[in-house]
Write a structure and sequence with these properties.
CATH superfamily of chain A: Cobalamin-binding domain
Number of domains of chain A: 1
Radius of gyration of chain A: 13 Å
Shape of chain B: globular
Shape of chain A: globular
Helix content of chain A: 40-55%
Number of strands of chain B: 8
Strand order of the largest sheet of chain B: 4-2-5-1-6-7-8
CATH class of chain A: Alpha Beta
CATH architecture of chain A: 3-Layer(aba) Sandwich
Distance between the termini of chain B: 54 Å
Strand order of the largest sheet of chain A: 2-1-3-4-5
CATH topology of chain A: Rossmann fold
Number of helices of chain A: 5
Strand content of chain A: 15-25%
Distance between the termini of chain A: 22 Å
Strand content of chain B: 5-15%
Structural class of chain B: alpha/beta
Radius of gyration of chain B: 23 Å
Oligomer: heterodimer
Largest sheet of chain A: 5 strands, parallel
Structural class of chain A: alpha/beta
Chain lengths: 132, 332
């Protein structure tokens, strides 16, 4: 049923050119039957909020490989709150375990590390979209 | 603000007031189809005058998205609230899709509304969703509304042809004059764009298109008052984009002054109603074919005791009123 088709906005936030991982994730989600709105490199929190509104996103995925996650993920959460958007945010990439707990405490719905399998990625997205 | 459970009337009220998230949600309802989609369409009648609906089509990789981004930049002076419906194919295997048109539209005017749509496997659904989505965007005050599709397949050509103005984007190296004279996409163009015109072969492509247009004159398929312009662009650096924007506006002016705008809108109405009827018909047909008595008939066809043509004749009375009358009361 088309109505449950999950729409995911995927983006790289800020100055981080490592986009191999996010392209792999986009493909994982596509092959799991989701619609991936791929924004690509050098997005800002504002462009991601605008895209999420226009695309009626069920979830936003950020890929981070430049150690900026402790600054950028909270900034993204702040922009979502400022826009009154209750869309879950998932962070993927190189995030040390010690940081992951802090991000989840700050409001990130889930953190996916470099070892995550396609099944884990897909299951995590489905879980956060269900609001669990 | 929870938007998922909000009633359609409330969403429309908010969308008209400028809430983009409500517009986004309405577009999802239209895309999902069913009774809520019908309700959205009923509550968003096309306003008189309406937005200028521009179809932009061409083969994958011809530069449509980049051109659209450039057009938004040029158009935002004259018509400050452009919207784009960017259609990309769904995977036929999983139903998923990677919708990447926004990558080429990074940095466009933030007043523009861009929505990515997947074909979702059933192209008939798209034929219903696009007119519904256009209505939502019109009601929310967007003008022009650009529909970007890969110009392959009849329905996609139909969708694009149902626009007020159809722009066909081609690139050098797409083939020779014989390719250009093949029926299809090129016939529905109101404006031709030869994009990537800095590449070798661009003037040859232009010549082939000119020849094709000349031949329409010979066979009488020419509109004596309007000849589609052929414009050379490089959408990466923006060369020629202003001229494309002017050509689109000129075409709209021509439609208005010649009375052809009403003709196009009639065609669009016919297309939309026909698609809705087709949807109902397809459902009735599926129900009929899945019913138990028909199963037995189909088994007979499979066994060779009844011919497919005879079976179809017998079943037609259940779907087509004129056949039922012809068949008489004994079959009803």
């Amino acid at each position: 049923m088309a109505e449950d088709r999950i729409r995911v906005v995927l983006a790289k936030l800020g100055l981080d050119g490592h986009d191999r991982g996010i392209k792999v994730v986009a493909r994982m989600l596509r092959d799991a039957g989701m619609e991936v709105i791929y924004l690509g490199l050098r997005q800002t929190a504002d462009t991601i909020v605008a895209a999420a509104e226009q695309e009626d996103a069920d979830v936003i995925g950020l890929s981070m490989h430049n150690a900026g996650h402790l600054t950028l993920a909270p900034a993204m959460l702040g922009a979502l709150r400022a826009a009154d958007l209750d869309i879950p945010l998932v962070v993927g990439g190189i995030v040390p375990d010690d940081d992951a707990a802090g991000l989840e405490e700050a409001g990130v719905a889930a953190v996916l590390g470099p070892g995550a399998t396609a099944e884990e990625v897909v299951a995590t997205i489905r879980r956060v979209v269900r609001g669990e | 603000m929870s938007i998922r459970g909000a009633p359609v009337e409330e969403l429309i009220r908010r969308a008209i007031a400028g809430d983009r998230r409500s517009t986004g949600r309405l577009l999802s309802l239209v895309e999902a189809g069913g009774t809520e989609a019908e309700r959205v369409t009923e509550l968003t009648p096309s306003p008189t005058g309406g937005a200028h609906i521009v179809g932009i089509t061409g083969p994958p990789g011809s530069g449509k998205s980049t051109l659209v981004a450039r057009l938004i930049g040029v158009a935002s002076g004259a018509a400050p609230r452009p919207a784009v419906l960017a259609v990309d194919p769904s995977s036929p295997l999983t139903g998923g899709a990677i919708l990447g048109d926004r990558v080429r539209m990074t940095g466009v005017d933030s007043g523009a509304f861009i929505r990515s749509m997947a074909t979702r496997g059933h192209i008939g659904g798209l034929a219903l969703a696009i007119p519904g989505a256009v209505r939502v965007l019109e009601a929310a005050g967007f003008d022009p509304v650009m529909i970007e599709t890969v110009g392959v397949g009849q329905v996609e050509v139909d969708i694009t042809a149902a626009a007020d103005t159809t722009v066909v984007v081609v690139t050098p190296g797409m083939g020779d004059a014989v390719q250009a004279s093949k029926a299809g996409l090129l016939e529905v163009a109101d404006v031709f764009v030869v994009n990537k015109a800095d590449r070798p072969g661009a003037t040859g492509t232009r010549r082939d298109l000119e020849l094709m247009l000349e031949l329409s004159h010979v066979t009488g398929h020419e509109d004596a008052d309007y000849r589609p312009p052929i414009l050379m662009t490089n959408s990466l650096d923006g060369q020629g984009v202003v001229e494309v924007c002017e050509a689109i506006i000129d075409h709209r002016t021509y439609l208005e002054s010649s009375g052809k705008l009403a003709e196009r809108r009639h065609r669009r109405a016919r297309f939309e109603v026909a698609n809705r009827l087709q949807g109902r018909f397809d459902r009735s047909l599926a129900d009929l074919l899945d019913s138990d008595p028909v199963r037995i008939l189909l088994d007979q066809v499979a066994a060779g005791t009844v011919s497919p043509a005879a079976a179809a004749r017998r079943l037609a009375q259940h779907l087509v009123p004129s056949e039922a009358r012809a068949a008489g009361p004994q079959f009803s």
